[in-house]
Amino acid sequence: MVAKINTHYLKEYDLRRNFLPGNSHAWLRELREAALENFSNTGFPSPRDEEWKYTNVSSIERKLFSAVQRDRDPAGIDPALINDYAIDNALVLVFVDGFYSDELSILRELPSDIIVASMVDALDQHAEKIEACLGSALKNESNGFINFNSALFSDGVFVCISAEKKLEFPVQLLFVARDQDALSTTRNLVIAEQGAQCEIVETYISADDSGYLTASVSEVLVAENACVNWTKVQCESSKGFHFGGLYVNQQAYAQFKHSSFSFGGLLVRNEVHAELGNASECTLDGVFIGAGRQHVDNHTRICHARPNAISREFYKGILDQRARGVFQGRIIVAKDAQKTDSEMNNRNLLLSENAEIDTKPQLEIYADDVKCAHGVTVGRLADESVFYLQSRGIEESAARDMLTFAFANEMVEKITNNNLRGVVQTELLNCLPQSGVKKEWL
Amino acid sequence: MLSIENLHVSVEGKEILKGISLEIKPGEVHAIMGPNGSGKSTLSHVLAGRDGYQVTAGKVSYKEQDLLEMLPEVRAREGVFLAFQYPVEIPGVSNIYLLKAALNSIRKHQGLDELDAMDFLSMVKSKTKMVAMDEQFLYRAVNEGFSGGEKKRNEILQMAVLEPSLAILDETDSGLDIDALKIVSDGINALRRDTRSFILITHYQRLLDYIKPDHVHVLANGRIIKSGDADLALELEDKGYGWIEQAVGA
């Protein structure tokens, strides 16, 4: 099997090598080829790998995805679709099957000390900055998808906020999947220099209900005192495969706030790995919802590498029918990361007898003066809550729908951007039974 | 309004109510008092339709219908309201959403149209004043982070919005300080009507200083052992439940 996939993707690389962004840079060719070689040795991750124990990606291996032609125009993408998901006032960079679309994107004027560009353009104009940083948040990573992405990424977004600058509007990365069997590999790099601030929204949607593979990798470098707010909204098609990795490096006093809403996809793996510098703060919130035969894996790792850092993690899962969810919350507290303050929580709601969740909090503490709390629950809706709503005249099925919605909506309500919150709430209602919840009353 | 005849109720095979009979006419306020474990809350739950209780004998008719045959939500739509002793917190759903969903499901049952959004809002806002509640509470998640007193006031607000025919208040006075008790009582008094009946379930007499009942019943060990007027409550306060239990040999 490995041989067959390798041949396919090696061929894919050979076909594309001259069109891949940054191919004129020797350093990037080397990086891609090293990654390709690693990938050809390992292939995609196997369940034998402890980190992939509950998520078997052989269904991805069995299909052989190919990148679409990069010069295809985005005709056929309904602008109304973009409109539904684009955040008001945001700078929106739209990608179709992994390629930037100028026509669909919504650009805004930027101050001279802030760069927001497609990776293709950025590798032309800001190659030195990218060379210095690309891959630096991946030093502790070894995973077939990352190598796959490094070798084949077709485009992506580069953001660089100069020291002490604040980007006044959100930057939205809107990835639209269209073609059957398409391969969408994008690589994003976000650099917030010392004291800089920005807000990123990463959205995945599909134009058709096609089967395709998204393999996206984002690196975020948050320098001293900088602050990055990152929301991911994943609404892939019911046949779509999604690997999305977010790798964060936080320097001293840096803040990173992440909210992940994982609603779509047939097989989904969301990875968030953060390395925390001295007195930095990291917040990871997440909601994942699965129904039918969906498989949704949230793999998080927070490494307290330096003292005095704070991390807060709260993920909620809702699984119905035969869906399967995975949550891995790994917290590593290094030997000299004294005074670490860490809390992790994962709560899951199983709506059917056949739904399954594998949840694995994992604390590895090598320091002796730390505060680490964790909690996991797996359950059904509380009878008392259902009865409370019934006693107010709401029928049982509607009461259950309302409580299920409420379970997830508690996380959605933390979104401070009103427009983004509305978009996420609409998606949430789309993927839950709706009879009990009226959007217009919310 | 409500007629309870020889009601026997068990929980997990253990008999809790051992033959309760009670007749409540429109507009009446009945207080049911009794020591802990006497079956007061069981009675309120059975009337509201909570699962987990087996009615082994007796019947309950409400507005000439068999109450025990109705689903809890149907009881609510027909005008039965239970103010919970421990109101449930629902993070993720706002108070105003719950009020709207509840009121509209009751209106639908009555064959009425959904209330216009503006009319609804001004109606609800006027009712928040009745329980001295800040309007901001409408936009907070249902009971989440509310103090004990705020939760009880929120129950009365729901009652004011839903305008039931029969309100069962389960230990609404418990955990309230004097100020909150007065606000809650004023709210309840403002809702008294000739067509609306109340069952006040309470452990203490002090609620009855504010809300004068027409009838007082003492529930002990699953039976009503004594009924009387408001003076019975005062006597109980004075002498305690032990006195009456001995007197009737319960």
What would you say this structure looks like, in words?
- The complex is a heterodimer of chains A (442) and B (250).
- Chain A is of the alpha/beta class and 442 residues long.
- Chain A contains ten helices and 20 strands.
- Chain A has helices spanning 2-16, 26-42, 58-62, 79-85, 119-125, 127-133, 144-152, 383-390, 396-412, 418-430, and strands at 91-96, 99-106, 114-118, 157-161, 171-177, 183-184, 187-192, 197-206, 213-222, 227-234, 241-250, 255-262, 267-276, 281-290, 295-304, 310-319, 324-333, 341-350, 356-365, 371-379.
- Chain B has one domain (2-248): P-loop containing nucleotide triphosphate hydrolases (Rossmann fold), CATH 3.40.50.
- Chain B is 38% helix and 28% strand.
- Chain B contains eight helices and twelve strands.
- Chain B has helices at 40-48, 72-77, 95-109, 117-130, 148-162, 178-190, 207-210, 230-248, and strands at residues 2-11, 14-24, 29-33, 54-62, 65-66, 80-83, 90-94, 141-142, 166-170, 197-202, 215-220, 223-228.
- In chain B, the strands form three sheets. Chain B has a six-stranded mixed sheet, with helices on both faces. A four-stranded antiparallel sheet of chain B has the order 2-1-4-5, with helices on one face.
- Chain B is globular and about 55 Å long.
- At the A-B interface, helix 8 and helix 9 of A face helix 2, strand 7 and helix 3 of B.
Strand content of chain B: 25-35%
Order of strands side by side in the largest beta sheet of chain A? Answer: 2-1-5-8-10-12-14-16-18-20
User: From the helix content, strand content and strand pairing of chain B, which structural class follows?
Assistant: alpha/beta
Q: State the oligomer.
A: heterodimer
Percentage of β-strand residues of chain A: 35-45%
Question: Order of strands across the widest beta sheet of chain B?
Answer: 6-9-10-3-11-12
